Amino acid sequence: xxxxxxxxIANGTGVRLGEFLVELNFDQPGILxxxxxxxxxHDVNIINIAIDAARQxxxxxxxxxxxxxxxxxxxLKQLHMFAFVKxxxxxxxxxxxxxxxxxxxxxxxxxxxxxEKDLVVHLQDPAKLAEEMAKRxxxxxxxxxxxxxVVTLEEALYIIQLxxxxxxxxxxxxxxxxxxxxxxxxxxxxxxxxxxxKELGVRAKTVDxxxxxxxxx
Length: 217
Prior knowledge:
The chain is an alpha+beta fold. It has helices at 31-41, 69-79, 126-144, 150-157, 159-163, 188-200, and strands at 10-11, 17-24, 45-51, 57-63, 85-92, 97-98, 106-107, 110-111, 167-173, 176-182, 205-209, 212-216. Helix 3 (126-144) packs parallel to helix 6 (188-200).
């Protein structure tokens, strides 16, 4: 039996990890092999591949340690050459960890909350559940992160999106992190955020903005 990780929180120290989200115009046999060959031709190691149920998006997580910026641009150019490719988004992490941010988890097309089996006992106590989730995520973060600068903190915050607790948009301004969280899972998100920053030892301010939250840290 294959145990496929829902989270990929990888130690990025000494490597450059990136993700590519390929949106398709149409589906046809051989697309996955064709796109994988583009990465192989440039000696890029593919770490993880995900395909949505509608087969409209393919998501690649890759090791780009040995590739120059020119090579990456050539990869993007080649990916766009195929008629079945509509658009390609990509990013490369500069943090000491890597958390995918171009994907969210769904079940039968509906947003899903990622929850470990042993946390199910807390379902009747949302506050306890959110706190335990945050503590577990911070523990994982501390095990793989070599530093906790603002760049690493921005990367780590996307664990919230992978959990399915909210969708995120983040910006870095003058050494400060600002995040806008929407599609909130209430009442978990507030408790999770408080516990997450407390466990990290980071001071953060949370402001209500209608259906969204703004976080400054």
